[in-house]
UniProtKB/TrEMBL annotation:
One of the GO biological process terms: sucrose biosynthetic process
NCBIfam families assigned: PRK09293.1-1, PRK09293.1-3
Reaction(s) catalysed (UniProt annotation): beta-D-fructose 1,6-bisphosphate + H2O = beta-D-fructose 6-phosphate + phosphate
Residue ranges of every copy of the Fructose-1-6-bisphosphatase class I N-terminal domain listed in the record: 6-198
One of the Pfam families matching this protein, by short name: FBPase
Record's cofactor remark: Binds 2 magnesium ions per subunit.
Pathway assignment: Carbohydrate biosynthesis
Protein name: Fructose-1,6-bisphosphatase class 1
Lineage of origin: Bacteria, Pseudomonadati, Bacteroidota, Flavobacteriia, Flavobacteriales
Residue span, Fructose-1-6-bisphosphatase class 1 C-terminal domain: 202-331
Length: 335
């Protein structure tokens, strides 16, 4: 019988490669693993528990209705970050401003975490896959002081780690620290994430495109040309691609990471910067995509190079297999 490697063991092994490192990033990753298990448990019983399923009645900073489970997940992650001693502040989709931990532990934390506690939340009530996305940066301000907004507004290429948890037919956690991408599946019988997808590589080309085609007439004409190209047999594979759009970025991204494909959320005339948030949706998945051999772009700039100006900034997003993203970008009309 081959040995099962748990996520905890994997993090510990990687930590041993850096004997002089303090282990704080490893401890922060353990905290994320723990919170993910709790949220996974809550997601799994969402349909059974009235007070979890359904709308909370509040709207978040982007004017979207918060689902109860969004709030539950947000609070769970904030709780573990606040109680660990590694994080000096967080920012999330559900909070208007960054949340600074100004107690002694917080002031001594080295890292900031930006996260989307439950992405694809409109899918909760209909039992479709959803996910958590996280992005970790080393703070810019001095350790021992209270964190400031500049600690959060760093370009994606400064990320020290990023990942996502997919609450799908099984729960998976996929992450990178800049040395490749590894995927772990939660075994509910033992409550452990086990290494199931070592050293993940995104195929250079796939046969799946994912986009909300309802927007096709209100975006750059190059997108329509690209979608027609995907649907024709003149494309790079000689057969029409399959259109697959779950409406949960994590799930669409994860499928494309494994099978090869492209995900597009372009700028539209209604939303000139697209819909997705740079800091806790686009950057972390761009880091993973690049680490797995894929690409991520706004259409005109590498996602990881975008200098953020605002916490909840939106950007147009093209992410996935290298050759597919390159082809889509080549058809875009200059703005
Ligand atoms: P959310 O964070 O409010 O759930 O919004 C992000 C989601 C993505 O997961 C998904 O790909 C996209 O919004 C779907 O948007 P649309 O319904 O406009 O196609
Ligand atoms: Mg989201």
């Amino acid at each position: 019988m081959s040995k099962v490697v748990t996520l905890q063991e994997f993090i510990m092994e990687k930590q041993a490669d850096f004997p002089f490192a303090s282990g704080e990033l490893s401890r922060l990753l353990y905290d994320i693993v723990f919170a993910s298990k709790v949220v996974s448990r809550d997601v799994r019983k969402a349909g059974l528990v009235d007070h979890i399923l359904g709308a909370q009645g509040n709207t978040n900073v982007q004017g979207e209705e918060q689902q109860k489970l969004d709030v539950v997940a947000d609070e769970q992650f904030i709780h573990v970050f606040k109680n660990g001693a590694e994080v000096c502040g967080i920012a999330s989709e559900e909070n208007d401003d960054c949340v600074i931990f100004d107690d002694e532990k917080g002031r001594n934390g080295k890292y900031v975490v930006l996260f989307d506690p439950l992405d694809g939340s409109s899918n909760i009530d209909v039992n479709v896959s959803i996910g958590t996305i996280f992005s970790i940066y080393r703070r810019k301000s001095e350790v021992g002081t209270v964190a400031v907004e500049e600690d959060f507004l760093q370009p994606g290429h400064e990320q020290v780690a990023a990942g996502y948890v997919l609450y799908g037919s099984s729960t998976m956690l996929v992450y990178t620290t800049g040395r490749g991408v590894n995927g772990f599946t939660l075994d509910p019988s033992i409550g452990e994430f086990c290494l199931s997808h070592p050293n993940m590589k995104m195929p250079e080309i796939g046969r799946i495109y994912a986009m909300n085609e309802g927007n096709i007439h209100i975006c750059n004409p190059g997108i329509k040309k690209y979608v027609e190209y995907c649907q024709s047999d003149e494309n790079q594979t000689g057969k029409p691609y399959s259109g697959r759009y779950i409406g949960s970025l994590v799930a669409d991204f994860h499928r494309n990471l494994i099978k090869g494909g492209i995900y597009i959320y372009p700028a539209t005339t209604n939303d000139p910067n697209g819909k997705l948030r740079l800091m806790y949706e686009c950057n972390p998945l761009a880091f993973i995509a690049e680490q797995a051999g894929g690409l991520a772009s706004t259409g005109f700039e590498r996602i990881l190079s975008v200098q953020p100006e605002k916490l909840h900034q939106r950007v147009p997003y093209f992410v996935g297999s290298k050759l597919m993203v390159e082809k889509a970008l080549s058809l875009l009309e200059k703005e």
